[in-house]
Specification:
Strand order of the largest sheet: 4-3-1-6
Helix content: 25-40%
Distance between the termini: 11 Å
Radius of gyration: 14 Å
Largest sheet: 4 strands, mixed
Strand content: 5-15%
Shape: globular
Number of strands: 6
Length: 150
């Protein structure tokens, strides 16, 4: 069971996954840039949801399509040069994706808060999961196609 209820048989229009501190050392597609286990677990769970669209929320660049080529960076969320909710809303408006529904935000509280600055109704199946170990366990269940029902 997730924080947003039992959600199997659920196909979101959009899943937003977090970036990660583990990155390649050279420019790459966003889909390949992030090499950390948490990002990869979120990606696998998002793939299992079979969304119409998936984006990565980068602390530096904001909303990234998987094919966007980016340079490596070291900008944690919450720092002065990190992306803001206002900048994300501008990006989402320019992409004409503000009115997508349903939206799922995979990630921790800071990530979900940024996603909800655009999509207040976004579902957050990792909310209340506790620490990283609990979140990784929930992501593993989701990646096997269980745990997302509406």
């Amino acid at each position: 069971m997730t924080a947003d209820g039992d959600l199997d048989y659920f196909r979101p229009e959009l899943v937003v996954i977090p970036c990660g501190s583990g990155k390649l050392s050279q420019a790459a597609r966003a889909a390949d840039m992030y090499i950390g286990s948490y990002h990869r677990a979120c990606r696998k769970a998002a793939d299992a949801l079979q969304p119409d669209r998936m984006l990565i929320l980068s602390a530096r660049y904001g909303l990234l399509d998987l094919d966007d080529v980016i340079e490596p960076y070291d900008t944690p969320h919450g720092t002065t040069d990190a992306i803001t909710g206002h900048a994300l809303l501008e990006q989402a408006t320019a992409r004409d994706i503000v009115f997508l529904d349903p939206v799922v935000a995979l990630g921790g509280a800071r990530h979900v808060g940024l996603v909800r600055s655009i999509w207040p109704h976004a579902r957050a199946p990792l909310a209340g999961a506790g620490g990283m170990g609990h979140q990784m366990a929930r992501l593993a269940v989701m990646s096997r196609g269980r745990g997302m029902r509406t």
